[in-house]
Design brief:
Pfam families: GYD. This is GYD family protein. InterPro entries: GYD/TTHA1554 (IPR014845). This protein has a single domain (about 1-95), classed as Alpha-Beta Plaits (2-Layer Sandwich), CATH 3.30.70.1060. Helix content is about 40%, strand content about 35%. The protein contains four helices and four strands. The protein has helices spanning about 10-15, 20-35, 60-70, 85-95, and strands spanning about 1-10, 35-45, 50-55, 75-85. Strands 2-3-1-4 form a four-stranded antiparallel sheet. The longest helix is centred in the first third of the chain and has 13 residues, at about 20-35.
């Protein structure tokens, strides 16, 4: 599984119904499984992004499909950053001259 840091911003629609955000997060977690994605942690944040989650996916296509499906619901705009742990970065660094 590949790890991603997923970022979400509420849309205007999402803010109008913000009281339902935890229910929607539960629904998103359930939806993620249909795409081979697992949301392991979900956080609500202050600042540029309203939510951050740690997700694992089979591949980039799986997280992209999940992001499209989640964003299509109209409550958030979703993006994902591929994340590497220490061992993965060391493997990448070993390829440098």
């Amino acid at each position: 599984m590949v790890t991603y840091i997923s970022l979400a911003k509420f849309t205007d629609q999402g803010m109008r119904t913000v009281k339902d955000t935890t229910k929607r997060a539960d629904m998103a977690k359930e939806l993620s499984g249909k795409f081979g994605v697992k949301m392991t942690h979900i956080y609500w944040t202050m600042g540029e992004y309203d939510m951050v989650s740690i997700t694992e996916a089979e591949d980039d296509a799986a997280i992209t499909a999940f992001g499209y499906a989640l964003s299509a619901n109209g409550n958030v705009r979703f993006s994902a950053l591929k994340a590497y742990n220490r061992d993965e970065v060391n493997k990448i660094l070993s390829k440098l001259p």
